[in-house]
Amino acid sequence: MLEPELVIEAGRTERQYWRDLWRYRELFYFLAWRDILVRYKQAAIGIAWAVLRPLMMMAVFTLVSRRLKLPEGGVPYPVLICAAILPWQFFASAVAEAGNSLVENANLLTKVYFPRVIVPGSAVIVSLVDFLISTVLLAGVMAWFHVWPTWRIVAMPLFLALAFAAAAGLGLWFAALNAKYRDFRYALPFLIQLGLYASPVLYLSSLTPEKWRLLYAINPMVGVIDGFRWSVGAVDFHWPTFLVSCASAALLLFSGVQNFRRMERGLADLL
Amino acid sequence: MSGSAIQVEGLSKRYWLDQRPRERYVALRDVLAGAAKGFARRLSGRGGSATRDEFWALRDLSFEIPRGEAVAVVGRNGAGKSTLLKILSRIVEPTAGRARIRGRVASLLEVGTGFHPELTGRENIYLNGAILGMRRAEIRRKFDDIVAFAEVERFLDTPVKRYSSGMYVRLAFAVAAFLEPEILVVDEVLAVGDATFQKKCLGKMGEVTAADGRTVLFVSHNMSAVTQLCRKAIWLKGGRLQAVGDAATIVRDYLAHDAEQVAERTWDWPSDGPRQAPGDDRVRLLAGREYQDAELSGVIDINRPMEIEVEFQVLRPVRDLIAGCTFTNSLGTCLFNRCDWKPNQLGPGRYRKRLLIPAQVFAEDRVSVLIQLVFYDPDVGSVLQPDILHFETVDSDAESPVRGHFKGVWPGVLRLGLPWADAERIPDPAVP
């Protein structure tokens, strides 16, 4: 039997990385499973929480927007808001949890080897599970307001994938920064809060002046939220913004992985 | 199969001093402030970059471990043992040099890594197994054996936060004990758990090297475990390789020689520099030293007597000067304090006092010594210096150690060699 030979030297881990990631795929599963299990251990509260948070946000936003007399588009306002809140909530919690994941799992990271990208990766997966549960809310709201899904709904996973890429990319950036600069975590909630206003959650992206619209779409959540709204039949599809958002998310993911890989080599020394 | 399992060539690991555990993270705030300062300095034309000190945790280390051999790594705290294990476990990357490893490695730097208190014993077995590199199918296959070894059958579906610490450790170790790597890297994990279980684990470890031809790299401060489990040992000192060889010889040499730096602290008097002797206008502490067998030593064999020496300068005539030493273990527990209540009436000059500590007092640990020089009347202290001296206490293979022939963890913060009287025959009412 030919035995595997492992060579450890400076800069060497690069070459074995992606192979290791495949080898450790079960750990990926187990870490996500652990976090989901812990979160939903008190089942009733856990699941209610995934639905309750967006529900309350939706209620508040709907009230505010009535006051502001924002245009509704083709569907009732709550549906419009709900289709934006769910992906936003997924994005925000994925970025926040991935961002804090390395520091929270410091104990694990200084004691065992595995490709570190698994840790923020599984944090994003956990948020994804929350999202999937909270889609019940969207279905409920749509049914309540008699908005029936058309064939467009089948495109929703595509926009979800876009949100996933953006969240993973930004999450990896934040995880790396957080491990390196420990006071970064104070900035993180603030940045996410800013992101809420920079994304068309409370309003429609068509409200932005035409000449700024492409620039605005550099925020990948613009493409995601527009996509979700389009899927429920609320707005028209706007190809240019969607493509810009896709490119931006891809760039975010690529640079996030690159930066994370660079930082990862010295990670155990930082934690 | 023959050949080497681990081959290390010129392995080095450098830390910048600002990366060392003491100041272990960088604040973005400081980096930004620093950048601004640097920019301002460049504007004002004053160069001068802050120099960072480097620290070599490992320096140019080379050795080879043959397949199927159990090898111990000995050395003082900070000698680079943990860094070596972390590099071989791929947790940190070396700065230079390389290590070749042939075979599947499992490293055990801690038991119960990744255990989550909210999860049940059953869930934690799967989680911990996956973290240690086991496949799900493999864990499922060994599950019953793991549970039986840990003796936690009845509590499998209880969250581990409700486990007693003994149960927790047993479960954690059991998962590790059923790893089947070709190479096992173990840190001081045996320092936990109760004595019986300890013995079971040591037995299990000895069994695997002997039977399966598994290569084991073992770090421990428990010298009797080292000599019992390993035939060979590697001695690290200051990040460099001091010696490799037969475990018994290495342990003996290590105990005898590797200690000078922590065994002595000295100060200058008269002086007003940073090395100024602590004290006041009556008395100044000049030195603290620890001796064993009339030699300075930072590693103390608990089966032989030792001495603490205190040197001081009396500046004006004093009476009721009391010297005292407080001994504290690595958990911060005060072991004991001993003051000298003699009415020391001393004129100006230099003096030396010695405290004799008999054999069989300390347990295996790391002990820190506080030295004080105080006055009885009025009740004032002149010198109170914590952590002056440190020594590691080891249990050698003495004639009759307190632990007898038992090799596992011995309970207690002290290991007093108190006498047992011989058995006396007493009248038995049942026998007329």
Helix content of chain B: 10-25%
Taking all residues together, what is the mean pLDDT of chain B?
82
CATH class category of the largest domain in chain B:
Alpha Beta
How many discrete domains of chain B?
2
**Total helix count of chain A?**
12
Beta-strand percentage range of chain B: 25-35%
User: What is the helical fraction of chain A, as a range of percent?
Assistant: over 70%
Runs of chain A with pLDDT <50, length 5+?
A: none
Task: State the end-to-end distance of chain A.
Answer: 39 Å
Given helix and strand content, the structural type of chain A is mainly alpha
Distance between the ends of chain B: 68 Å
Oligomer: heterodimer
DSSP strand tally of chain A: 1
Describe the structure.
The complex is a heterodimer of chains A (271) and B (432). Chain A is mainly alpha-helical. Chain A has one domain. Chain A has 12 helices and 1 strand. In chain A, helix 2 packs across helix 6 and helix 4 packs antiparallel against helix 6. By secondary structure, chain B is α+β, with helices and mostly antiparallel strands. Chain B has 8 helices and 20 strands. Chain B is globular and about 80 Å long. Chain B starts with a strand and ends in a 38-residue tail after the last strand. Chains A and B meet through strand 1, helix 2, helix 5 and helix 12 of A and helix 1, helix 2, strand 4 and helix 3 of B. Strand 1 of chain A pairs antiparallel with strand 4 of chain B.
